[in-house]
Design a protein that fits this description.
This protein is 36% helix and 17% strand. It is of the alpha/beta class. Pfam families: PALP.
């Protein structure tokens, strides 16, 4: 018998209906539970995709060193993927990340380099590229790597299409590296051009893990703005409150970018009728416990 490996468990995540929060509406709001992936987030998909395709091109082989700048979920996913496939993984991230995220990466055997909160993700990305120039490893570069959105074009998007029997009318996703919204959006639009692709970015001054408003110089190269029909600005407090409500009123334990996506979907639901709105739940809430997010 051919038994699956842990890598075979990435993807095919559940799509579930939001029950109480939508209130009295003709719309159906569905949530794609990406926290059900083995390393706990939607980033498991592009992590494996980037490594598998780099191997297929002959760019890397087991035993090589990989480097990546991350705010958390991609790093955890890459640490898992490197452990599965036999790579040395160096991850660079702001020291403001939660203790759970740092501990998860090192648990998988990754080496962690921290930059200051002031340097942020931009500083982490600069350092990763500098280390590559110095010959210390290969940067997978989730921000410019076409194998990131490809994971969602080949996996997440088709799953959503199948799970909704093609009835989806709106797709809502937080935007960080933008791989999820680019890959899913592209696939879904090819099936039904009238599907609305909706992205979330933080309001000025808001800090929401996994959602970014990038300076122009750091805008992900995989991002094609015209492929997003609507961008919703999400306030940190609204996203955090929705994250708490999801746990307490729906039993859905997730992170703040997911709370923001659901808040955006509910805003959208007030403006449309008879819609099938799908939002991405990026990860699980347990990696945010030390932040105090869920404190009473």
């Amino acid at each position: 018998m051919d038994y699956p490996t842990i890598a075979d468990c990435v993807g095919n995540t559940p799509l579930i209906k939001l029950q109480r929060l939508p209130g009295d509406t003709s719309n159906t709001i569905l949530l794609k539970l990406e926290g059900n992936n083995p390393a706990g987030s939607v980033k498991d998909r592009p992590a494996l995709s980037m490594i598998n395709h780099a191997e297929a091109r002959g760019q890397i082989k087991p035993g090589d060193t990989l480097i990546e700048a991350t705010s958390g979920n991609t790093g955890i996913a890459l640490a898992m993927a490197a452990a599965i496939k036999g790579y040395r993984m160096i991850l660079i991230m702001p020291d403001s990340a939660t203790a759970e995220r740092k501990a998860s990466m090192t648990a998988y055997g990754a080496e962690l380099i921290l930059v200051s909160a002031e340097e942020g993700m931009e500083g982490a990305r600069d350092l990763a590229l500098q280390m590559q120039t110095e010959g210390r490893g290969l940067v997978l570069n989730q921000f410019a790597n076409a194998d990131n959105p490809l994971a969602h074009y080949e996996g997440t998007g088709p799953e959503i299409w199948q799970q909704t029997a093609g009835e989806i009318t709106h797709f809502v996703s937080s935007m960080g590296t933008t791989g999820t919204i680019m890959g899913c959006g592209r696939f879904l639009k090819e099936q039904k051009p009238e599907i609305q692709i909706v992205g979330l970015q933080p309001t000025d001054g808001s800090s929401i893990p996994g959602i970014r408003r990038w300076p122009q110089a750091y805008l992900p190269k995989i991002f094609v703005p015209e492929e997003v029909d609507l961008v919703i600005d999400m306030d940190q407090r609204e996203a955090e409150e929705m994250t708490r409500r999801l746990a307490r009123e729906e039993g859905i334990f997730c992170g703040v970018s997911s709370g923001g996506a659901v808040a955006g979907a509910l805003r959208l639901s007030c403006q449309v009728e008879n819609a099938i709105i799908v939002a991405i739940i990026c990860d699980r809430g347990d990696r945010y416990l030390s932040s105090g997010l869920f404190n009473q």
